Amino acid sequence: MNYTETIEYLFGVRLFGQKLGLETMCELLRRLDNPERNLRFIHIAGTNGKGSVAAMCSAVLTAAGYRVGLYTSPHLVSFCERIQINGQPIAEGDVVRLVEKLRPLLEGQHPRPATFFEAVTILALEYFREQNVEVVVWETGLGGRLDATNVVTPLVSAITNVAFDHMQYLGETIEQIAGEKAGIIKPGIPVVTGADGTALNVIRRVCAELNSPLTVVADGENRTPLLGRHQARNCAIAEAALLASGLKITGAQIQTGLAQTRWPGRFQIIPGTPVVVLDGAHNAAGAASLAEAVSEHFTGKRLALVLGVLRDKNYDEMCRILAPLAGMIACTRVNSERTNDPNLLAGLCRQANSNATIEVFQDVVAAYQSACKQAEVVVITGSLFLVGEAVNRLGFSDRPAVSATELTLQ
Questions:
Q1: How far apart are CA 106 and CA 114, in angstroms?
Q2: d(Cα 178, Cα 162) in Å, to the nearest integer?
Q3: Is the pTM of this model over 0.90?
Q4: Which end of the chain is more exposed for a tag (fewer CB within 10 A), N or C?
Q5: In Å, what is the CA distance from 99 to each residue of 9, 122, 353?
Q6: Nearest-CA neighbor of 85 among 109, 64, 110, 59?
Q7: Does residue 165 surpass a pLDDT of 70?
């Protein structure tokens, strides 16, 4: 197989669906002689911010001289973004080689067929083992307790925050969602969190039951190039997690690493006329952080919103939060079978901002082109799928996707 064919194969694995549970994952690892047992991990969960915290931890550990693996999801444009060593994505050739190596295992008899996320998680672990990575920054995919990443015993567990998202899998209340995310906590292993309220109460209880030392981060100072006030707390969580890990890191190395952090698609500003803001906010909490950042950086500017949201998100609340920001709103489809109807989004946006010009498009490029004619600042948001497609099709990436399939391989 070549790389394009490998992406198509992984897309086929994806058709097995999304299934939570660790039984298949543990069996796959057993047959691979448990690569995770040769690695050290910083395990990160949370509703929002876990990718930013992971990027910060990876940058600091790289500055400290470690050989650092970084595993995150989803990707924006290239599948290779998910698996990195010292900031460098895995090579396409290595993806092809490892999929061919692991294919007999993935297609073998297990408690159930491996899901796409399980397959990619196995691939990452095998790659990190063979590349002699010293520490892995390890982001959960969904939830925590039954997530495929929850097969490791880390140096430290971090839970950034808890808000409403993925309720169909994690529960309808904050307490239930917090319980699922607290499932990454291991006996005696330090825990760092930025959660508050009832979510924090759940995390405190689990830590007490498991005798796991807990550090609660209330706020902090943003020492990264990442924009938005919410990054201050993410920065503090990353620093606290690194210090709790027991790894040898100096204050100067922390400062250097944080200053070198990059995390595309999260309030990423692209200069020009108009200015373009790319932000993957995909739930109400993320929308609220985006709204705060837009108000901070672009007060008084004519602003347009290119908005696409998946139908299994709390899109009504997102529209209520985001629509008042803009004088023009271009609602569009997301590059996913889970896309919401842009006409529905338009109706919700009209309810939230009756003064805005609201248009409907079936394509992000057309939505963007219309928005550019009417604003000084264009914010593209509502889904990482949408941002990834925009980055790829509008020329904001120096590494375009090899196919439409790669963009939808989430």
A1: 6
A2: 6
A3: yes
A4: N
A5: 9, 10, 48
A6: 59
A7: no
